[in-house]
């Protein structure tokens, strides 16, 4: 049984207890905490409370919940598109539809399953058994370059570069609508969507700083082919920022109400094109680019022909 305690800041005065807990644990749902409160596993100032309890500044909230028992992650002989490999790092080109690390409903067929088979016992263990070697991630339906760290030394060094925003990450994508500016920036904090816990959103309170630089590569009238450079790396950052300025990523069912005319398009049209970093051992800058996937190239060719 895990137990953690938090003091409610003045900004939470008058807010519901379950809403506060969702903000503290953004990966958990409100219904999860409502049941936890009902079962007496949440105490406020050492007393059980109801779900609708209104917090007061300084309230001490103690949460008790069992650690989930997760199945062991097994190596699987899944082909990898390797862009580069040495004793410290592995750069792979992740295909569309592949989940990066195991999670509920996805304990097989992930990039981690494939990497465990390829690297055997040579992977960083910093992020635990479910995320060996994983220093950053990209969404299931986003393709492209991703770094896997083969030891803790390289993991710590590259994680530091990502945290300091010195790693170079360029994405390419197709957005809905005609973006007027040739280039620009979106500087807007991102946090959990208060109305839908499965989504992220631009928020004014409780979010994390997020900055995306964008540049137009080609215009097609109803769609625009763009390049995105990440200064930060928040969950769904490009997808949320582009939807926020009225140009969601084509095919993004989560953040766009635009109905794609391309029936075979699976998920958002977004590709992690380039990754650059200082190699942890040689201290030399290295950069790798993943070629656009076939579906993306065909879509671009059709747009260029006016289809």
Descriptive report:
The strands form three sheets. Strands 5, 6, 7, 8, 9, 12, 13, 14 and 15 form a nine-stranded mixed beta sheet that branches. Strands 1-4-2-3 form a four-stranded antiparallel beta sheet. Helix 1 (17-24) crosses helix 2. 32% of the residues are buried. With 307 residues, it is of the alpha+beta class. It is built from six helices and 15 strands. The protein has helices at 17-24, 30-38, 111-119, 152-163, 237-244, 294-304, and strands at 2-7, 42-44, 47-48, 60-65, 82-85, 89-94, 143-149, 168-176, 183-187, 190-192, 200-202, 211-219, 223-230, 270-278, 285-289.
Topology:
Layout lengths: L1 E6 L9 H8 L5 H9 L3 E3 L2 E2 L11 E6 L16 E4 L3 E6 L16 H9 L23 E7 L2 H12 L4 E9 L6 E5 L2 E3 L7 E3 L8 E9 L3 E8 L6 H8 L25 E9 L6 E5 L4 H11 L3
Parallel strand pairs: 7-14
Antiparallel strand pairs: 1-4, 2-3, 2-4, 5-6, 6-7, 8-13, 8-14, 9-12, 10-11, 12-13, 14-15
Helix pairs in contact: 1-2
